[in-house]
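Supplementary notes for students who missed Thursday's class. We covered one full example, reproduced here. Read the sequence, then the structure, then the short commentary at the end.
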Amino acid sequence: MLIAVPLSKNNQTVLDPGWFHMAAALLAVDHFNTRNDSIVRELGELQECGIQFGNVVAVDTGTNSHQAMEYVVEQLQEMGPVDSIAGPYNEI
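Structure (token representation):
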């Protein structure tokens, strides 16, 4: 899984919602993989489900849409096929 979120602006790390969205996405993946139903009760009903998200990577898309796509494509070339891509959460 590739999580694409803006974590920087003009090559400077910023404390924008991108960090919070990344943390939420990583927590959601962890809860899904462990079937932790403390937030989403329906996950408790999936104990027999064999689906897992592995090889989870977060990529900084910055705030430039062309740069964001370059970063995503570069990461995909390094990783190979992924199960899914999450993000960006809004227009960059």
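Commentary. The chain has two helices and five strands. Residues 17-34 form the longest helix (18 residues). If anything here is unclear, bring it to office hours.
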